[in-house]
Amino acid sequence: MKDIYGSAILFFYFLKWPIVVGLPLLYYGYGLKNNWPMNLLWLFCLALIFKDIYTLLKSRKRE
């Protein structure tokens, strides 16, 4: 179970920005058909990005 958790952390750490930027490009630029699992993955990555921005701003506010 620890291996799966560690793999998920690495996956989302390195691929959240390419997924958030690349998926709309694939949908609108290259004609990929819309599917809901990729949309959920995109929303999850977007939430992780907002969480990172929030924690960055919160940590700067403390200083």
Report on this model:
The chain is mostly helical. It has 2 helices and no strands. Helix 1 crosses helix 2 (about 35-60). The longest helix has 28 residues, at about 1-30. The chain starts with a helix and ends with a helix. The model has no long low-confidence stretch (mean pLDDT about 90).
Considering the chains and any ligands shown, give keywords for the structure.
single chain, 63 residues, mainly alpha, 2 helices, 87% helix, 0% strand
Topology at a glance:
Elements: H1 2-29, H2 36-62
Task: Give a brief description.
The protein has 63 residues and is mainly α. It has two helices and no strands. It starts with a helix and ends with a helix.
- Helix content estimate: over 70%
Q: Total strand count, please? A: 0
What does the largest sheet look like? none
**Low-pLDDT regions:** none
Tally of alpha and pi helices: 2
Structural class: mainly alpha
Distance between the termini: 37 Å
What integer is the average pLDDT? 90
Strand coverage percent = under 5%
Order of helices and strands: HH
From the alpha carbons, calculate the radius of gyration and give it in angstroms: 15 Å
Note the overall shape.
flat
